[in-house]
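During the first year of the project, the team set up a workflow for recording each protein of interest as an amino acid sequence followed immediately by a discrete structure-token representation. This format lets reviewers and collaborators read both layers of information side by side without switching files. As required by the reporting guidelines, we include two representative entries from the current panel. The first entry is reproduced here exactly as it appears in our internal archive.
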Amino acid sequence: MLSYAHGASATPLLGETIGENLRRTTERFADRDALIVRSQGYRATYRELWDTTSRVARALLGRGIARGDRIGIWSPNRYEWVVLQFATARIGAILVNINPAYKTSELEYVLEQSGARLLFLARTFRTNDYVKMLGEVRGRCAALTEAIVLDDDWAALEQSASDATETELAQREAELQFDDPINLQYTSGTTGAPKGATLTHHNILNNGLFVGEAMNLTEADRVCIPVPFYHCFGMVLGNLACTTHGSAMVIPGEAFDALAVLEAVAAEKCTALLGVPMMFIGELEHPRFAEFDLSTLRTGIMAGSPCPVEVMKAVVARMNMREITICYGMTETSPVSTQTGALDAVDKRVGSVGRVHPHVEVKIVDPETGATVKRGARGELCTRGYSVMLGYWGDDKATNLAIDGAGWMHTGDLATMDADGYFNIVGRIKDMIIRGGENVYPREVEEFLHTHPSISEAQVIGVPSEKYGEEVMAWVRVRGEHASAASLDDLHAFCVGKIATYKIPRYWKVVHEFPMTVTGKVQKFRMREIAIEELGLATAAASKTA
């Protein structure tokens, strides 16, 4: 059997815009909670959310925003972000998601590359003065005509809704097509310059629908969303999964804080929780974890980076998330291509990234020849279907490199597919380590290291070696109570006789944190840069083993 799967489904794709879908949900669940943002003290039912998006949509029409105009949003998680997500969709403007961690050069790049006409921004976030930073680059952003500061100008914006009528809004909505581009998401920058993945109503609305279906969401569910809105995880797996099912969106705060998440789940009686592994680790290890009643939790999603098996088991056992799912995907595919089922066997839910999503195709190919490999063999995962982006905004060359002539998106991820159709991600093509002719897959070594009682998190990379070409290096985060007991020699000894000698890390580095993007993705290219520099120095932070 070849490594190919098609997600046949009796549930049809939604052939409607995001605005049309929200209207239908509002008609069914008008008085149910739609959005709770605890850090702002904001609560809205679906009727109230709909009415607010209507006012903001009319205000944007009154400013002359045309179908296809780009509108930037540079803000952490706030209720205004959600309102803008739906208001821009209802008038056919393209929302440009700007990473809250961006500095001036990155902000300028995205505004210029996207041709954003209007920018919404928070006044500040953490130590960043957004208004000041925008002032430094605004003169070089030719298309930008207006900036609206959420903290100062939002009330006036809503009041300007009278600049356009409900009839004008209805006319604009009637013009829209579900294949229209609606969102630009700039890749996280783990490698190279960010590229703007261009996504449609059809892309992200349907992906949100089927992600929610896999969690068995209904109008009775309350989903805690601590992941950032600027990324697909927040605005699709979170917001759109909720609005397609009438579920409540519960936002703990502007950015991830383990205590705020635990408080939100307990106070709002959340039934689902989203997060990357780093977030779940932070919640499980919080010193006040035992104080909170998490008994209402049922399901959720762990995704965004490889999910250690031991962490997954702890989430199921200690957080009551017996129906938690694992998702796999990428921004360019809206994002999810595979997902475990809420009732899958435990070994599948902790040892794979699930099966192909409805209405999606997945195959695994030999990176050298492009031929589909047999089940069980490693190769590059490719995906095709409704979820594949239109392309990279203004970059046909990059688009053609990513999407082949048959419409397959080449992910760059190494994967296997088993006889039951479950996929497992074993690494990145660029991350694979070739040591003396032997292929070492970092994910395999990381999973083994997570079985060590002292290791909270492990990341494995390759570093240059004159003798072998590359050597294996492990960065590990050690649990607080084990920090004094763990030594690099002990970690090395733990591996001997349990994994092949060529897979045992030659170098170890104990860290408190890893270089990461704002969405929690580990930047292994940055780890390599740091390691190459440090291994040339006699520091205590990095140590060779025998």
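The second entry, processed by the same pipeline in the following quarter, appears below.
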Amino acid sequence: MRSLFQHSMFDTVLVANRGEIAVRVIRTLRALGVRSVAVYSDADADARHVREADTAVRIGPPPASESYLSVPALLEAAARTGAQAVHPGYGFLAENTAFAQACADAGLVFIGPPASAISLMGDKIRAKETVKAAGVPVVPGAADPELEAAARELGAPVLLKPSAGGGGKGMRLVRDLATLDDEIAAARREARSSFGDDTLLVERWIDRPRHIEIQVLADAHGNVVHLGERECSLQRRHQKIIEEAPSVLLTPEIRAAMGAAAVEAARSCGYVGAGTVEFIVPGVDPSSYYFMEMNTRLQVEHPVTELITGVDLVEWQLRVAAGEPLDFTQDDVRLDGWAIEARLCAEDPSRGFLPSGGTVLSLNEPQGNGVRTDSGLSEGTEVSSLYDPMLSKVIVHAKDRPTALRKLRAALAETVTLGVPTNAGFLRRLLAHPDVVTGALDTGLVERDAESLVPEGVPEEVYAAAAAVRLAALAPAPKDGWTDPFSRPSGWRLGGRPSPLPFPVRVSGREPVTVEAPAGARVTQTAVTVTVDGLVHHFHRAGNWLGRDGDSWHVLDHDPVEAALSGAKHGGADTLAAPMPGTVTVVKVAVGDEVEAGQSLLVVEAMKMEHVISAPHAGTVTELDVTPGTTVAMDRILAVVAPREEDTA
């Protein structure tokens, strides 16, 4: 499926993005012999996409979180490097009409649809009206300014969605209309933060729905095809975490009908390039599907479509943007085998999936033998709260679904990102869930069963491995090939039985414990092996980090005296600490205010996600150490609420 018209391909393309998508686009540019230009913020000066591009340009102005949104800086970078086209990736400005138009005005080719199509489909309200007129079924709903009235008329449950943007940002499921006002306010804040537009719409919520999308590809010569569907029903907080192609739900007849509807939706807005038409599908009746929205860009989950069709979507984005026609028709599209993708995110399942951060100390990303990892990581990468939490994607391709599930579980077990808590272990367990294995999926499955997929405590062998690391650190280095046996920390005593050394340690977010190192442990700079109750356990290691099978633990030394003094100073249970690294966006109280148990006091935002900090009990705010805009590290003290006297009597 390769075009013969290659004379108009670009010489230089600027990639207006970062992370794994920038690296992935650069890979195809290199394969086509096209010079790549990366852009970077100060926070990304040593990022992988910067190193892999042919050249890179620093963009501003600060703060770093806004650098990639600076249209003038991006256009200047393109001009300085002689770029003829701009690939926006996804996120940031990928679906920004003004940016697409600014590129055109500057004489640059925007590798995406026309600005008019972005504008039309980026406005979910107009998009629904347009595709409805083209005969595509849509979900009942309404938008601003009738939002609140329409929500109450539809009745709970309803789904609030930003009219601009996507990716689950700002989406709120409201099952109790008594909370509608608060949910609308929160949805507006997230939408404004993520997309610069707080316009909302409301839709009827379909319980136990399936999220199925169709990949479309259109050229500037009137040719439009679809490349089959992707099942994206496994979601958490409206964010996709596992995607697969094809879907176990669709018959060939329903696939053809949905594909035809997606093609009509693309035609209705004059679409050009790669795009995705998303449908909500009742699991009990897959023939009753409803248009949700169209994403006018490359999707995060595009690799699964590439693997089952053999079509490089980024290559065809480039070829179409260069004016080439598609050299294949709908009849040429064949689906081969099964592909499944898992999104690796910087988040801590043991702390309610709060965003995490840190420095990648040890990294292993499987590749080959049907496994593909798209990543922007490298050892030494600093993962901050400035950007989206997704770090990489692990994708597998196999002859059938059961094989693909097994291969992906194995690939996640091989994935190592010590230094930054991720959801890899959680995803492995999710892929073994009975309903996932049988294909009985819906968009609420993860939320319903998430707790059962997160281990309650820390395995005993983790503490044993941590103690072994500490014991090994006490051993003296050999001198001239010989070690004094009396200097070894073996616990040996004259005339008595050995007394093993106890080590007080704690896993971040857990209570401290005191453990002893098991006999016969093997410790190196990168690995630990211990035997507990006759079972041998192997761990990856980087400093005080241990990992296996996708899970990781940061095991810290614990000083009981220091901990006691710190607890006394900050009031113990009265203390409100930052649950994640981020920025305080809302402060609702002041020192001296009386508050009720559960009352919302502050809001911390990280990676475009909000977390509400509530009062642990009724009382008085005695300390408040932050203001809106304060950047906080995880576990930093935010406020202290002293309980009412009658509650402590």
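For the second entry, the following points were noted during internal review. Residues 344-422 form one domain. The CA atoms of residues 59 and 74 lie 7 Å apart. Both points are flagged for discussion at the upcoming steering committee meeting.
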